[in-house]
Description:
homodimer, alpha+beta, twelve-stranded mixed beta sheet, 19 helices, 35% helix, 18% strand
Amino acid sequence: MNETxxxxxxxxxxxxxxxxxxxxxxxxxxxxxxxYQWEALNDRIPGAAPSWWMHxxxxxxxxxxxKRAGKPWIPSAVAKELRFEPLPEVGQAPDPxxxxxFVFQDSDGYKWLEAVSYQLIRQPDPALKATAQEAVDAIxxxxxxxxxxxxxxxxxxxxxxxxxxxxHHELYxxxxxxxxxxxxxxxxxxxxxxxxxxxxxxxxxEKLGREPGKERGxxxxxxxxxxxxxxxxxxxEDRFLKQAEYFIDERGQKPFYFDIEDHARRxxxxxxxxxxxxxxxxxxxxxxxTEAQGHAVRAMYLYSGMADxxxxxxxxxxxxxxxxxxxxxxxxxxxxxxxxxATHIGEAFSRPxxxxxxxxxxxxxAAIGLAFFARRMLQLEPKSxxxxxxxxxxxxxxxxxxxxxxxxxxxVNPLSCEPEACKTDARLGHVKPVRxxxxxxxxxxxxxxxxxxxxxxxxxxxxxDTLFVHLYVAGEMELTLNGKPLKLKIESSMPWNGExxxxxxxxxxxxxxxxRIPGWSRDAKVSAVxxxxxxxxxxxxxxxxxxxxxxxxxxxxxTGTWEKGDRIEMFFDMPVRMLAADPRVxxxxxxxxxxRGPVTYCTEAVDNQAPLHxxxxxxxxxxxxxxxxxxxxxxxxxxxxxxxxxPAYRVLQENGEGLYHDWHPRKEIPGTLTLIPYFVxxxxxxxxxxxxxxxx
Amino acid sequence: MNETxxxxxxxxxxxxxxxxxxxxxxxxxxxxxxxYQWEALNDRIPGAAPSWWMHxxxxxxxxxxxKRAGKPWIPSAVAKELRFEPLPEVGQAPDPxxxxxFVFQDSDGYKWLEAVSYQLIRQPDPALKATAQEAVDAIxxxxxxxxxxxxxxxxxxxxxxxxxxxxHHELYxxxxxxxxxxxxxxxxxxxxxxxxxxxxxxxxxEKLGREPGKERGxxxxxxxxxxxxxxxxxxxEDRFLKQAEYFIDERGQKPFYFDIEDHARRxxxxxxxxxxxxxxxxxxxxxxxTEAQGHAVRAMYLYSGMADxxxxxxxxxxxxxxxxxxxxxxxxxxxxxxxxxATHIGEAFSRPxxxxxxxxxxxxxAAIGLAFFARRMLQLEPKSxxxxxxxxxxxxxxxxxxxxxxxxxxxVNPLSCEPEACKTDARLGHVKPVRxxxxxxxxxxxxxxxxxxxxxxxxxxxxxDTLFVHLYVAGEMELTLNGKPLKLKIESSMPWNGExxxxxxxxxxxxxxxxRIPGWSRDAKVSAVxxxxxxxxxxxxxxxxxxxxxxxxxxxxxTGTWEKGDRIEMFFDMPVRMLAADPRVxxxxxxxxxxRGPVTYCTEAVDNQAPLHxxxxxxxxxxxxxxxxxxxxxxxxxxxxxxxxxPAYRVLQENGEGLYHDWHPRKEIPGTLTLIPYFVxxxxxxxxxxxxxxxx
Lengths: 696, 696
């Protein structure tokens, strides 16, 4: 494998963000989301469902203290195997020693801590650090002496730990703990949480593996794969890489572990055919999987871990599997908003090309997972298609998940929404027409917090001799090329404008800067002005073979000596694009949608007369005039975005024709549809929304 | 109220069917469905879910005998309140004394018996009658000494009878028992089943009503309303009419009875706001209901009873309510196949204009209920719109419910069906891509049997001086007009051809024959040739005022003296119609469907290249050329139907464009879509189907 292309995310400490767009999001996370979530983790939000996170941690700490003191500890009555989300009876005070919440509740705090760590790297804050330390201390105190750390079992039937990996999320919690611990270590240099993660990872490894006396188990909800690789990267301890590889390689082997486990629990006959394991991506060895299936978040997390492992081990069969799964997820099962997981049944992928708009699931966490997967595919092989999809997911569904004031969240991100229908129709019961304050199952809000807080790691990766610029995020960067330090400055006003520059502010180094040509740009211009020569790929000044070297898979590779004053100027034109879906997508046949740059647009009834489906556009007339479409500044929720004004027609309601009548051309009047970025929908009150516009 | 227009169905004994189309269906029911269902009721179908009907009846008879003999009878262990569809554990022999099946299982046999009775009226058959007598005897033996007749409670906790009218179907079973008893009485002149019905009706009336000491209950699943009215008509006993009126008038009054009942059972606080009662059409007094809501079959049965009561009592407020509910169900919530009840959630009406094709519920029984309602609205006021909808329901969804060989049945009738999707997608779990042999909940097959067997009662109704011809069913009819007997002969080859004649074969009488102008006919011609004069409505021979008299609400009224040799000739042109839905129907925007006469058409992948949604028609080009569309004979499952050949275009799949790409006109090739009648779909193996054709 060509080592040059394998890259790692830029350390967060090496980037100072100045980007207007993403800096706002990061500040929102810092100033709104993180403090709010801390209150939520401590059950101090009036009217919101309790998180029980701190409650569980504190109870587990008391349990550990009692055990050390040799005092008896009787598991609470609510500690029953297979119980999911136990809650106190209405009107009852909670049992202070009982576990409450989902079985994976521990992970909510870990995600929060990971986001806080990223924010602390970006900008130290003693008060925030002190708060986070409180969480870290609570976690460490909740850890049992043998390293076990999952309050669901610690407060319950501990002897049943590791007996239901399929449904109970011990290894999922391990994964999030590792992610948090690495981030906390990088933010503070402290070992406390890192040691907790190492001890829990070792505790798990004692039970699970191929060695005699161990069970051949693996996670029911993946994430430990990529998280253990991070732990390996941070600690250099090879056993964590081996553990990750074991989880990946063992998955889906016969006999199916989840069936064995199920059999042991229930004493029933073994199914043995893996039925039901597709939900967990465990119905076949991962190298034999070609279709993205099952729970979308789990799938994305698994594939991310596989891509990490493929990069590190150089295993071509694993890389092949990642490419097949990428194709399936992205080219057959992805919404135009970068969302994945079309069906609420199992929060899962549906069949290829089944992408319904109104019943869409498109969970925020799944889009986040798609960004994880894409970034890792980029690290494995820099192809701009991966970055295009990552960008699409980030700018659309990930951001749609959070209100512009950072105070409410979508779990489900539909592509069309009629509020009344969502409220009265159980078939749409999973779709909320307005963002919610906090979920009982609060996976999405802290997940948004951690990806937004670590955004530069998605924008930039680097190898020994190459900096890859995947996303144009403005800021100041420190890096080394071939061991020599450089300071770079990136200027950009993405996603609203395609003019970007990258200049060397300090240092001198030889090497390559590879910049991505976005897939949405039709006429990209990249030119490098150095102190010695002008590199302009594709212009007659360069010989044909030089050009070949400088552009590959959507990246322009600029190689040379870089020093202060050197500059790369880029102009990515950002036309309004009118897109159609593959005709195999039944749902959107005869419909188009609009994008500009990476931003997907939608209509809202607050700007356009409802019902929105009575509007149509004429794509044949529009196709040649897309550059005439007005792109206007619009303020939504205090944020300036670009709106589009699309010529359209509105069908007039004719009464008295009956429900069914002889076809005739509809009476319609010309008008203008105002489109806004999808990620800002539902920030002006409850209203109808649709991404796809009808053509007839 | 004008008594002339109020009409009653023609007695079945007065009509001898010769109609090629409907006679085939009746013979199918007689020769296939009825014998098969008898085997099913007796649990003698290998591989099919048992019905338990005869099992339950026989067990109840033993229980009654034991009680009479003073022997103890201990309810079986499976007799538990609120248990729904108890079944023996796998591998266990059923308890001979236990109740099995749904709580409404008794009604399956009643429906069967009703169908058998209609067939016996049409054509005596001692063997069939003997079989039916076995069923009648079993029912009578199952009746308790106090008249109570519901094996679910007789075999279980009898003391809890009448305590859960909402969910347990005692009054539903009463209704079907009355319907069967009246039919059996008409077929055989025997009182046995009629007495059982009378005794059970009286037993119910002792418990329920407004009198002191009674509960103000009414049916959770309606039908008793119209059934008791039939019992009144057959017996002349006014108490049954009063009982029906009570059920109608009490429904939805505050405090809500189902809440009171629920409270009494569970001991919990009373909701009191009727929440949840909309499913049962009990959230408001029936005269205040304007929107068709809740379980579609229940709604249709209630509205049918309301229309009966409105006709008999002359209550204008009840007639108003019926008209509002008709409008809502038919003009806002009806599929173009005559199906109603769009959502599988609660087998219910969805909101207005929500008529999805693939997830449609459109239960066969609901279309049957729509025909019931329509016939009763016709009896109340002869307007051809009622007959148009009745005809549409009968020729499309009702018949779609049964395979052409009478051996398998649809419960759900989707308007588009991708078999693979139905099998793998839980969101479509209710849609079966092929008809099923017999359902555990077997309401639809015997319901089809009873409506098909009594079809002439939907075609013809009469008052003292008027015969109303709603549907053109060929046959020989005996009737009296103003007390004088007439024999008529009707010739028709509906639904394939619009030439119809009605001639007087014998007798002489004065009066009116009112014939319906079908809504689908664009250029209807009706002329009457009598021995004395020629009545041709609308021709210059008739004075303007005479014409006015002769046509009203879609019926041509021909009044005079009728005697042998008189003849009415009708020609209803039957153009291929290309229909669009009201634009408020989001699902079918930009789509058209095709009908010819009352028959709705669809495409199947067995005739047209799949996937069907890649085909489009050009409505603007077709609109003026509909009369050029070839209408061809086609044999499907041994039955000759008419197919349509529609010019269309098939989109070509272009590879390598990506899931989303810049819009461009699709490459497509011209071709021809073969359409077949919807009611014959899925008779040539599992295949994709769609009713609505795309325009782009």
